[in-house]
Amino acid sequence: PLAMVNDFLYQLQDLDLTAIGNSAYDLVVMDYSADGGETGEFTATQIDALRHSPGGEKIVLAYMSIGEAEDYRFYWQDGWEVGDPAWLDAENPDWSGNYKVRYWDPAWQTIILSYTDRLLNAGFDGAYLDIIDAYEYYSATRPTAAQDMADFVARIRAYARARDPDFLVFPQNAAELARIVPGYLDVVDGIGQEDIYYGYEDDDVMTPPTVTAALEANLDLFRYAGKCVLTVDYATTPAHIDDAYAKSQAKGYIPFVTVRDLDQLTINPGHEPD
Predict the structure, then answer these.
(1) N or C of the chain: less Cβ packing under 10 Å?
(2) 4 closest CA partner among 27, 23, 29
(3) CB-based contacts of 168, cutoff 8 Å, min separation 6
(4) How far apart are CA 54 and CA 18, in angstroms?
(5) What is the dihedral of CA 229, 112, 87, 76, to 10 degrees?
(6) What's residue 1's pLDDT?
């Protein structure tokens, strides 16, 4: 099915499943819950209807952060603070309520596997894993940080595939792990990359060409391995949107340009899903 994907939607907030289903997007990356928490979890009936929707068949991936803990998720407990539990680390200064985690800790991994169970129960086709680049935060003090993250991704995929042999795993960012960790390409089905053409320094600002070239070199490793490469750029200027789509498609990637809040069903004029 991934070979048939040539457009995708990335939206995490203000989800309208009917409107998304009426769109012609081939692949959808969304939150597993309408409000991010347990009370808003989408049902298997809703996800199945989205997969087989009037706009066409869709692959539906659920966003799941594995490198940070989020205080609005089902697993969060009152009284938690940095250092208690032991795997809970510093709060992200740019995202209130998000906390670094020692992702190699078995207790944290157990939480994520229970999160994966919820995705499987709801019938999602796969998981879109975020904060893979958390390994960089720990690399100075933990020599195995990159390998630990790759092993964690592999564990999630193996766990999910024990229940659903077709379950897909897409990490977001940290494409350099394909170079750093042997075998990483074997445990993912694709990758999402943010800010490759616009948004690296600021939204609607062109990413420095040297950064783009380095990102493309890493993403090409995925493409040459037959993996699906999704690019996400943050821009609203029509010329910038057109440029991002043209550059991404020229590389054989699948582009999407939207706002960073990821709260819109964005359909860019001239780049409508077909």
Answers:
(1) C
(2) 27
(3) 2, 59, 61, 125, 126, 127, 189, 190
(4) 9
(5) 120
(6) 86
